[in-house]
Design brief:
The protein is an alpha/beta fold. The protein is about 40% helix and about 15% strand. Strands 3-2-1-4-5-6-11 form a 7-stranded parallel sheet, with helices on both faces. The protein has a two-stranded parallel ribbon with strand order 7-10. The protein binds nicotinamide-adenine-dinucleotide (NAD) and uridine-5'-diphosphate.
Length: about 350
């Protein structure tokens, strides 16, 4: 059972995963306040969250690197816990702009942590990524798998993880849930919020949605000669609503634990690109034409989680199916052809 209502500061709450988490938090009885600089988030997403839940919440347009402003928000709101989604998330962009990724993801997180602790808040839920692992030595990937990130993005997440672990070792009143997401996809059941990629999507599911609505002619399947059952890349897709619910569980966990602890958040199942195309076609009745293209540089053949620790310790488990993911992604995409624009 959920502990009593908490005051939850959500950085990056206007983004894809953050916006899906807001309704889950409010439906669990928590009070939320969002900080977002809207660099990749949408005010409309916040409006729609209010519409879904029928309740208002606070919003401060601010950059997490702006220590004075973040401290002011923390003083005024008085959070019990912070869920920190804000950051930059493109592995390929991070190769072109490594300094920017370090500045926003690492320095931004440090400033936020300082402001939290100065304001008397000692509980943090941090958005990390399966990108910290790099090419897997073994599958499924458990939390003690070595971390060898291959991009500045993955390295920035690993660096924040290290800082949180060190800080929590020094200060036993600090509690951090480090959540390593696998491949979040899909959209809210209402069809009101979803993923809004800028330009041409680089991730598989948003790309497929654009093909389904005729905006792109066909999908390029990046490689069909991997050592996987059908030769295409295998990933662990997790419904964004399941992921959102994991944050509510992690928040509950921080109320009764100490230290920093890593949790894999995935369904624990590998799905190939071809499996995904087939499931999307069956779930939505749309055809997805595709061609096989060369492998994408940097891609691994297979990556999927052992989510056992989250199940045992957070009492959370992914419940929605690949069909739910495809159907909801399509419902959102078909209903909002311009996203939030
Ligand atoms: P997103 O870009 O949709 O959301 C991030 C939000 O943070 C946006 O609303 C953006 O405006 C805001 N933001 C960015 N920089 C900021 C700053 N300096 N100050 C204040 N706000 C800022 O991304 P998402 O997919 O919702 O991802 C959320 C978190 O989860 C990120 O930290 C990301 O690295 C991590 N993650 C995402 C995925 C994924 O596939 N989507 C996978 C693993 C981890
Ligand atoms: N993929 C693909 N075509 C695309 C985008 C992705 O074949 O247009 C493949 C990609 O090679 C990988 C899987 O789909 O095997 C998931 O890719 P995504 O970029 O969504 O996630 P990530 O690679 O970051 O796990």
């Amino acid at each position: 059972m959920s502990p009593k209502s908490q005051r939850v500061l959500v950085t990056g709450g206007a983004g894809y995963i953050g916006s899906h988490t807001l309704p889950e938090l409010m439906m669990a009885g928590h009070e939320v306040h969002v900080i977002d600089d809207l660099s990749n988030g949408h005010g409309v997403a916040l409006e729609r969250c209010r519409q879904i839940v029928g309740r208002d919440f606070g919003f401060s347009e601010a950059d997490i690197r702006d220590a004075a402003r973040v401290s002011e928000v923390i003083r005024a709101f008085g959070p019990d816990v912070v869920i920190h989604f804000a950051g930059l998330k493109s592995p390929s962009e991070s190769i072109e702009k490594p300094d920017l990724y370090r500045e926003v993801n690492v320095i931004g997180s440090l400033r936020l942590l300082d402001a939290m602790r100065a304001g008397g808040c000692q509980r943090l839920v941090f958005s990390s990524s399966a990108a910290v692992y790099g090419p897997p030595d073994f599958l499924p990937i458990s939390e003690d798998h070595p971390r060898r990130p291959t991009t500045p993005y993955g390295a920035s997440k690993a660096e924040v993880e290290d800082i949180l672990v060190q800080e929590a070792a020094k200060d036993t009143t600090l509690t951090c849930a480090i959540l390593r997401y696998f491949n979040p996809v899909g959209a809210h059941a209402s069809g009101l919020i979803g993923e809004h990629p800028q330009d041409i999507p680089t991730n598989l599911v948003p790309y497929i949605v654009d093909v389904a609505r005729g905006r792109l002619p066909r999908l390029n399947v990046f490689g069909d000669d991997y050592g996987t059952p059908d030769g295409t890349g295998v990933r662990d897709y997790i419904h964004v609503t399941d992921l959102a619910r994991a944050h509510v569980a992690a928040l509950d966990w921080t109320a009764g634990a100490t230290g920093a602890r890593e949790f894999n958040l995935g369904a624990g199942e590998g799905t190939s690109v071809r499996d995904l195309i087939r499931t999307f076609e069956t779930a939505t009745g749309r055809d997805i034409p595709f061609v096989v293209a060369p492998r994408r540089p940097g891609d691994v053949a297979s990556s999927y989680a052992d989510p056992g620790r989250a199940e045992r310790e957070l009492k959370w488990k992914a419940e929605l199916t690949l069909t739910d993911m495809c159907r909801s992604a399509w419902a959102w995409g078909a209903r909002n052809p311009e996203g939030y624009a």
